[in-house]
Amino acid sequence: MSAIPGVPRVKIKSDEPIGERAGSRRVDRLLLLAPGMIWLFLLGILPLGLILVYSFAQRGTYGGVVLNWNVDNYIRIADPLYLGIFVRSLILALETTIICLVAGYPLAYAIATAPPRHKNLLLLLVVIPFWTNFLIRTYAWIIILRTEGLLNALLLATGLFREPLSMLYTPGAVLLGFVYNWLPFMVLPIYASIEKINRSLIEAAMDLGARGWQILVRVIIPLSLPGIAAGSILIFIPSLAMFAIPDLMGGARAVYIGNLIKNQFLAARNWPFGSALSICLVLVMLVSLFLYARVMRREGTWS
To answer: How crowded is the C-beta side of 101, counted as CA atoms within 13 Å?
Structure first.
């Protein structure tokens, strides 16, 4: 290529070859990734690997772990008693996710379509529960639902009931505790998805004669599917493993997979069986994440 008339040629010299510069950049990337990879290994991969090893061991006479490679713990999980606990936990997690979706979607839609001067206030009201520990919020519900609690006092004052209702230490109380604690995790992702919807699409649907419910079903809900999927996975997975709320609001009769694992590690001191239960729970969570990835990939294809 000929030089531009009147412009002198400038030769750029590099002190290091191209290959060395590429290698230097690769080292820089590795150094940047190193802290995160070390953190992931120490707090994620290593503990999970130990749990996997322990799941093939057996309990010692006085507790502890005896490395005697076998699959007895996994065979024990196939017992109808433990399968029933797994099924009960899955049902509770699904119920929590569905109720949070039904209650959270209208709330997220209302916040997304609210006037700008009200939007921040509504978001603040959703986020305020995060400012207190979930145990404090759970104890507040215990005070409300107990036999001498506020709700029973109001019901007795109306004269509709002569005796206080037994609302605490029931499956319904556990479900209420789950929904109350996880609802913001559904509202915020859906709100973010609705906020990103191009308003011209809604206006185009209105110009074509679509009614309000048709716009909601055919435009808004499909385009907010990533938020629905994200909120569902953020609620479903913690609901499977949570043990504090069933212990506090369900009592001794509320046995789910989370507090079963906790009891195996603490009360029963059966770490191998607790590890096997944990690995099975991790597999269920991985399946959930795989389904979430499929939904997001399909949504990307539609986009």
So the answer is: 20
Q: Which domains does the chain have, with CATH numbers?
A: 71-131+184-302 (1.10.3720.10)
Position 237: which residue type? I
Decide: 73 and 67 in contact? Cβ < 8 Å: no
pTM for this structure?
0.84
Tens digit of pLDDT for each residue in 165-189? 888 999 999 999 999 999 999 999 9
DSSP assignment letter at 146: S
With 0-12 / 13-18 / 19 or more C-beta atoms within 10 angstroms meaning exposed / middle / buried, residue 207 is exposed
Which residue from 222, 282, 229 is spatially nearest to 258, judged by alpha carbons?
282
Tell me how far apart the alpha carbons of residues 229 and 234 are, in angstroms, rounded to a whole number. Answer: 9
Closest CA to 48 of 290, 286, 266, 263: 286
| pLDDT tens-place string over residues 89-148 | 999 999 999 999 999 999 999 999 898 888 889 999 999 888 888 889 999 999 999 988
